[in-house]
Amino acid sequence: MRKSSKSTRVHSERDVRTPRRPARSLLSDNTWREAIDRRTARVGIIGMGYVGLPLMRTFCAAGFSCLGFDIDESKVEKLNAGRSYIKHIPSSLIKRVVAEGRFQASTDPKSLQECNAILICVPTPLTKMRDPDMSYVENTAHLIADHLQRGQLIVLESTTYPGTTRELLKPILESSGLHVGTDFFLAYSPEREDPGRTDHTTETIPKVVGGYEPRSLKIAAALYGAAVRRAVPVSSCEVAEAAKILENVYRCVNIALINELKILFDKMGIDVWEVVKAASTKPFGFQPFYPGPGLGGHCIPIDPFYLTWKARQYGSSTRFIELAGEINTAMPEHVVNRLAEALNEKKKSIKGSKVLVLGLAYKKDIDDIRESPSIELIELLLTRGASVDYNDPHVPRTPKQREHNLGMTSKKLTAAALRSYDCVLIATDHTAYDYDWIVRHAKLVVDTRNAAANVKSPRGKVVKA
Fold it and tell me: CB count, 10 Å around CB of 69?
């Protein structure tokens, strides 16, 4: 949703609205069950991005009709024309569900009145002070409240701190004059998307569901259970919210650990990648995590700090999370320092050097650059006076982001181009890259992903960072 200049919207005479009844009210458990079983329940999804679009695909595949709501008119036009803007969601699928009348995108909030369930998939970023920016959720809740119908199920999927559904979402929705459990239903079910994975999809990943009260839980679990392989009911919205935070804290802390050890082992002349490979031979008690140039994606770099912020309200500190954050956010600076050292060995200064960054996406084989460390790497290199280009087969140009607008286009990768750069920085290990060929033609390669591990020669060109 569009970010508001105010974190909350002031209601005056509209604070209490007259409850509205849709043409098809699903208030009883039996009518909801029938609508789910017969696939007559219409599912509205707010936010047609990396979470909302795969969710739409899953519900359409299960036989439901879906409405995709987004404030971005260009996205809505593309979707209604049968075109996808996310790599792993093919345009052929969008075109088919639109042609079959099972999917329509809209920027008109009134269209939400025709939905039986509304699933909220909007961003939950951090402010510059690392506090939760809940404006997208708040604005969405107000928009829904303006059009809320009796019998509707509202589900928040955006990752957030425990208590958001109860403390933030519920009061805004009930400002409509309707009440949870009697007039509408409310639940939280965290998204678990991992773009680029082929072994798990939205349909096969178990869906944790927490309801505000028992009826909300029963209906939400039944709806998701009809679309995904397994719904996992839990006792409350707070448990579901906390489960998602735990998943991301677990990864954040362990990645920080291996990043810290990478720096230490490098000083000791030990290859951390070989260490992880050796430790991974233990069949129990160890799970491998791998170092990198920093954290990327919308979840792991951001979500743990939602819990840190919430913990302060209880007079507690989350020292593991805060320390992990310090380590992970320092990794791009570490990489640039290693690159500067590698150039220095070649009697070159980072200032005035030409650097090619390979990979803009936050992980391999996807087109998602949200919170990508490559963005910060480019900005750090530019700040130090380097001339920087990038190549990414999945990201032809840098889109405008909330905090960044590089205005760059992907450079063509040729032997002559590689030879023209003083250093090639491997930031994302896309499988499309021929690393033997890259190392052969580059003057110097700084590898943050161990992508050139199997390159036979000339090894002296490769510096791990």
Answer: 28
